[in-house]
Every structure is written in structure tokens, then in C-alpha cells.
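Co-fold these.
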Amino acid sequence: MVRKIIHCDADCFYAAVEIRDNPQLAGLPIAIGGTSGRGVVATCSYEARAFGVRSAMPVSEALRLCPHLELLSTDMPRYQAVSKQLMNILREFTHLVEPLSLDEAYLDVSGSEHYQGSATLMARAIRERVRQELGITVSAGVAPNKFLAKVASDWNKPDGLCVVAPEDVADFVTDLPVEKLVGVGPRTAERLHELGIQTCEQLREWSEMALRERFGRHGARLFSMARGEDDRPVAISRPRKSISVETTYNRNLETLAQCQSALEGLVADLHRRMGRKGIDGTGATAMEKLFVKLRFADFETHTRESLWRQPQLPGTGDFLPLLETLYGDVPRPVRLLGLGVRFPVASGRGAGYQLSLF
Amino acid sequence: MKIRISRESLLEPLQPIAGVVEKKQTMPVLSNVLMAVDDDALTLTGTNMEVELVATLTDLEVSQTGRVTVPARKLVDICRSLPEAADVTLALEGDRMKISAGASQFTLATLPADHFPNVEDDEDSFTLNLEQREFHSLLSSTAFAMAQQDVRYYLNGLLLEIGDDNMRAVATDGHRLAMGNLPTPTYLDTPRQIIVPRKGVQELIRLLDDSEDPVALTIGSSHIRATLGAYTFTSKLIEGRFPDYNRVIPQGGDKTVIADRETLKSILQRAGILSHENIRGVRLELEPGQLHVYANNPDQEQAEDTMSVAYDGEPLQIGFNVGYLIDVMNVIREDQVRIVLSGSNASALIESTGTDDNLYVVMPMRL
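Predicted complex below.
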């Protein structure tokens, strides 16, 4: 059966919420992120993007590109509230909603009877209702699978709708640059380019075997996506993969000792977050790994992990060895420190959970 | 320092030594190999501070003695690239090492030999003499179950327990356990337990061969040293208490399966193809005379296979990480294996049906 998938993605979500609540900001280049001058941009308005400001860019660099940038600090509780309203609207169309983040979700409307089952009309209705009820815009993509729907929602962004009907899939994919494929980042793109592959049409000339040899299991995905195929189901609940905290410090941490004492505060934050979510490391919340992330002043970033299969929350002493290995012997200024835990891939339902000897 | 040596004599010991030297080094001298020449021998040493490998070569012509360190990787690559049976001359000139063979000339940077760390000797050590093949077999049949980068650091190694007439090796990562035994008189009054780190075990396995040639093990309070042929290998020991392994060896399982090892391995490998890539779970279903193996993955792909086994107990379903079972099938040498089970949530005991008393314990996965 041909499926009908909608991918909805709010346009510069945090910025849109800020502008909605303070209309004087409309039309100005604004960015939301750490305001200390050392944080990074979380989201920015299209006016700011015109200056070259991008998500994940250090605020200092954003200010250099756009000196009159209006900088706002993140107000998570407010965004979360709007996100909840957004998801509630989506769930009125189908219960098969897979949120990807606060402002992004897949919907499987194959079985939905609204609008005579027309996914296109449903996507229009979603966009209209979000605009009226929430005062922000969402872009939507409609397609027979998740991958195409996601590419489509980006096609006419912002405030756009793009429909890829089943009969148009082949044409839609032909000229699609490989960079648009899910899971193709700069590195994979570069390797594809080296093989003379720029578009999906060129990618289709490669056999699945040849792609598997070069790209491992991702090769099989590339093979399917080049043909516009993706049979991943829309999953209502996705198991939590990790939980983490991180901080960019106002002033660089100059020594290992400073990092060590900063780590203590982070561990306390992590415990608070885990406590709120009812994670105590036992039963279904059993953990798999610990990790520490370190970003040096030159933006070189490293993470290191170790196994953690004990039925209790890890303490500062458990993270310290990872920090020490990451930091190395040569003192270097550190701008960001993060840490967290990862959960086993199949936890949640208990099935597929590896039991321990001791 | 100046010597003449054949490419092969130099290359053979250099390769395992370069294996000990790690690429990412915090101290530059640790990516170097120490060359020490005395009147009639060349001694090569590589270390990563955890393990050290020394080779002594006598098949050479010494013109001048001396000591210096040179980049290990580059020296190996140069030797490897030279034509077979090339006659190689190495000469220290100032702080440079000149290497020449035929028309090929190389000049390598050096670091002074006195920067090179050396492993201090332990007092209170004792020595055991074994055949290489026995020790190799003991290590290689158990090492696969060692943990990797576990926070329980004492699991990232192999336990060697030396009693008065037996040496036992135990490895576990918390999910499965391997235990091997090597009967040998040690004349040791009080049993000793040591934990050899992962890297040390792997290098030892690489150095030992399948021969009856001797290996002498010197075990001290913080190091183990193996002397075999031209090599002396030293590894630090992991300090810490290994968990009480006897506690997790299951007793009194009432469901015994005897299966042909090769057949079982094949059906596990086949079914494993369609198990979840990360979790690798397979479901085993036992009924009298038959074992069924099932696997499926999130893409709803399925595999199913069946073999005849000797089993007359009650039907049982149990899940396992297929990789853990295959690892065991790979190290058992006999044609038949015995699997003793008691229930779906209890560990399985796997042994060969032959004479060796190695045993393996694997915890199941929840179905």
C-alpha cells in the first residue's frame, strides 16, 4: 500500500516564537542562543541568515557577521509550551505522530479520513491552523515516505508546502543532490563526489553491493534513497537514546583542576534532569554508557565514552577518568564541557535486553 | 653506532615491536624504537608504558656500538619497502640515523636513548616454564571474553590464577565468561592471582606460536614477563580485585543439549544475518531432538533454521546475543558441544564434550 507521510517543520521556531510575542522584532535580524557572547546560536531569523548567521555558530562570530544582530537568550519553557500545542494540533489529524524535536514531526496519515483522505489538504489545514492558533508558520512536505517528505518540507521553506505524488517520485529524485539525502553529511558527500556522484541519478548507476562495500550498511540506505525508497515506519514513541548536559563557560577553563571542579556542577545538573524524568538506572532505565565531551578554545571537540551498566546513577568520580583522558597531559583552554549517559538501543520494553552475570 | 644487517633479520622483530608502539603518543619518544648495540648484538625495544617488547638480534656485523631511538613506524616502512635480502647499513651520524641499502639512502631523526623509559624490575617474582603452544591455547581460548573499556577496569584484562599444579585463565565482560585451565606443576605454596591488561594479552597471543618451544613466565607484584626465543615481553598488571567467578558458574542446570559444533555455528551465523545489527538477539527454541533458531530485525526481516540435537528435556525458549554464542563455537576444538540450561533467564553453561575442562558461561537476553 502506498503510504501518505507528512513532515512538518516550523520555520526558525525559537525566533518565530520570540517575534510572535514581541512584534517589534519582526523584520530584524535576531538570533536566539547563549547571550554571554560565548554561547552558540540556537536559531536565527531569516533576516539574520541573510548576513550568513547560522545555527550552531558561535555568538561572537554571528556578531561579527551582523553587528546589529538582536540577541535573545533561550526561553525553553516557553518554546516547550508552544511545541506541545503544535503537537496537539498534529495529533488531531492522526495518532501516528513521530516528533523529531520540539518543532519537527512526521505524520503517517495513510489511514486518516479527514479531507477525504487527501494528505495534501491535510497538510494545508495543518499549516493554516498552526498559523491561526499559534501565530507561527510551518513548512510541510507530503510524500509516500519519510525521507521524501523531509526533503519536500525543506523544498519551499519558509512557509511552504511541497507535495511529491507517488507518480512524481522518480522525477523528484533524479536531480536531487546527494547532500539532501538523510545521513549524508559533508564527509559522505565528499566521498560520493570523489566517485563522481553529485545527484541521485548518478547514484542510481551504482549497485547495492558496490555501495555497501564503500559505505557499509549506510550504502544500502543510499541505494534505496536514490530510488526514492524508504520503508522506515513512523514510530510513535522513540526510545530515549541519551540524556546529557553541557555548558559553554563565560571564561575558558584553563587547567584540568578547573575542569574537574566544573564537572562536579554538571554531574549535579545531570542528576537533577534524570531525577525529573524518573531515571534511576534500574529496570527499564538501565544505562549503557557514560560520555564526556570537551571543546577546546580552538573549537576542537572530542568525546569519550565508557561502559556503565550499574543500576545506579554515575557520580563525579565515574566521569573524572574520561575527562582526564580527554584533557591529556598538555594544558589547553577549554570552552565547553558536557557529559551524559547513553541508554542501550533496545531498552524500554525489556525485550532484547542483555542480562548480566553480576 | 654502526651496524650491517640483512633486511629480513631486522624486519622480523621490528614488526611486532612496531605493533606495541602506539600511533597516538603523548611523549614523542614513545613512538620511537630504542636501538642498543653492544659488541655482538642489537637490542630493539618498543613500549607504550603499559607493555614493552624487547628483541635481541645477533645475526649482524657491528662496526661501532651505541644507543639511540628512531621513529618505529618509519623504520618498519623503510625496511619493508627494501628489496628482499637487501644488505642494510645503519649508522648514527651526529643526531641523525643514516640507513643505506644498495642505492637507497635514508636519514632519520633520532631522540637520545636516555629519554627512553624502562620498566623497572620487580622483586618477589617467580618463574614458570611452559610450552608456547599450551600457553597460547590457554590465552586464545579465553581472551575473547575480556571487556573493552569497561569502567570496571579490572574486567579489561585476563585473570591468571596460578595454583600449585594448575594455571587458570578467566575473562568476563559481565555478560559472558570464559575459563580455561592448564595443568602444570608450579610448586607455588600460596596461589597467586594477577590480571594482565587487554593489550598485554593480545600482544602475547601474537608472539606465541603453536610450537613446543619454551616460554618462561616471570610473574612479579606489578609485572608479568614472558621470555621466548629472541623476545622479552613485559606487561604491567592491572591492580584490582577480579570478581568471584565461581559464583557465576551455573550449577545444577537440568536441561542438557549435545550438538554438533560446526552445524550449530553455521545455523547461528545464518540466522545472525537478520538479527538486529546492534543487539544481535536470536531466539533459540528447544524441543526433544531439535533446536530451532529464529532471528528478526526492525525491518521485519526474518530468519529461521533448525538442526537435530541430542535433547530430551522440556521445550524451552531462550534468547541470546548470537555473537556471544559464535565466539564460544570458535574457540571450542572438539566436534561436539554440551550446553546446560535451566531456564529462559538463567545463564547457559557451554563446554566441549572432550577432555579439556575449559568452560563458557553466557547470560541470555530477555525475549
